[in-house]
Amino acid sequence: MKILGIIPSRYASTRFPGKPLVEIQGKSMIQRVYEQAKKASSLSEVLVATDDERISKHVIDFGGKVILTSSSHQSGTDRCAEVINKINDAYDVVINIQGDEPFINPEQINQLCACFDNQNTQIATLIKKITADELFNENKPKVIKSVDDFAIYFSRHPIPFFRGVEKENWLKEHTYYKHIGIYGYTTETLKKITQLPLSLLEKAEGLEQLRWLENGYKIKVAETNLEANSVDTPEDLKNF
Fold this sequence. Notes:
Elements: E1 3-9, E2 23-24, E3 27-28, H1 29-38, E4 45-50, H2 53-61, E5 66-68, H3 76-86, E6 93-96, H4 106-114, E7 123-129, E8 142-145, E9 151-155, H5 170-173, E10 177-186, H6 187-193, H7 200-205, H8 209-214, E11 219-223
């Protein structure tokens, strides 16, 4: 199976412009993500997809592979689809690797790739048991899954709601999971889902994966014990 790892990377960011080029312990964030992704044994190739010449030049300078893409994309998924439509090589699966996790563990990438050993997997992502301080944080999307580990729904609100139980006791009643935002798709599925119009649930929650669920696509989930620490604002840099 040929698997391509793509790191979508854009210069413009509302909360942190130029984030991919910020230096973290002597290297840029995008270089750190790239080098971590290259350590994932399941990936056949890794490249950066960007709409910015500064990022493109920087990736080339540190010896990485890069493809320039449109600046009009609304999501990393759309950027990944453009790459697949541009390159000549044929890949079975694409892994969309977050460009703001400078120390992503390669084992998370390998775990996601392993989901495609199941031929029924169209899309895959990772989940992790949630902590008390994350349960009601709307920036930490939650997910509920079926007994065969396919996502049923994602929400910014804790799900399920426990009727008659005080909120501080919900974690005692149920195992809650948060979504780790790394995706994998078969190339055929990737091309199809990026042609779908925005859905009602997606608009309500601001979560693109709900568009896929609404249109009948199944999302395989795998539980990880590894944390994903991202850089969303300049203040987050002090965590690294």
